[in-house]
Design a protein that fits this description.
By secondary structure, the chain is α+β, with helices and mostly antiparallel strands. The chain contains six helices and eight strands. The strands form two sheets. A five-stranded mixed sheet has the order 1-8-7-3-2. A three-stranded antiparallel sheet has the order 4-5-6. Strand 4 and strand 5 form a beta hairpin. The protein binds protoporphyrin IX containing FE. One of its GO terms (molecular function) is metal ion binding.
């Protein structure tokens, strides 16, 4: 990776957000990550590798061996015109962690190789705001047993009343005829 080991904060990266000066945060070097993964696997018995909030994380036993992978900062200003996906998508990926956008496109290995040319450093992961995850609103607790119990109680009260009303009605009707 290029960039002379520079580490940028999220704030520093997100000000570069126009056609003449466009920086992105992407962690697209999956091939590298896989090799890191097998190294960690050998050393610390990693149980699984999963991608969470744009970062590849190795989870291992014991838990203190959780390894967050670095994200990289890319200055794609010179690539804007030549990007096969167009410059607008690159611009719209500024100001955030663009990893998911980049991965969703399914970039080829050659696209990933090209990234090295534009890498200018690492991002300080602690400064990147987490993407808010959508949580389904909690449903009100619905207790079916209690509801059917309630209906039975109402019916127990209403049925005799209805029978009484019907009997009364018939009696009134027969009396008047
Ligand atoms: C340094 C960063 C990037 C590099 C070097 C890069 C490179 C490339 C290359 C070489 C292609 C041609 C197809 C391929 O080989 O996969 C491509 C296509 C594309 N890229 Fe990127 N890209 C970068 C970032 C992004 C980002 C952040 C987005 C945001 C969504 C994006 C969206 C697209 C789209 C939409 C296409 C067109 C896909 C298609 O029509 O099949 N790229 N990119």
């Amino acid at each position: 990776m290029g960039g002379d080991g520079k580490v940028f904060t999220f704030e520093e990266v997100t000000v570069h957000n126009n056609h003449k000066d466009c920086w992105l945060i992407i962690n697209g070097k999956v091939t590298i990550e896989i090799s890191i993964y097998s190294k960690i696997k050998a050393e610390t018995k990693v149980l699984l590798l999963r991608r969470g909030s744009g970062v590849w994380e190795g989870y291992s036993e014991p838990a203190e061996h959780i390894v967050p992978y670095p994200k990289y900062v890319y200055d794609v200003t010179k690539f804007m015109e030549d990007h096969p996906g167009g410059d607008e998508v690159l611009l719209s990926s500024t100001g955030q962690d663009a990893t998911d956008d980049f991965e969703d496109v399914g970039h080829s290995d050659s696209a990933r190789e090209m990234m090295g040319e534009y890498c200018i450093g690492d991002i300080d992961a602690s400064t990147v705001p987490q993407r808010t995850k959508y949580r389904t609103p909690k449903q009100p607790h619905y207790n079916q047993d209690k509801t059917s119990e309630f209906i039975i109680k109402i019916l127990q009260f209403l049925v005799p009343l209805a029978i009484l009303g019907l009997a009364f009605g018939i009696r009134m009707y027969t009396k008047s005829t």
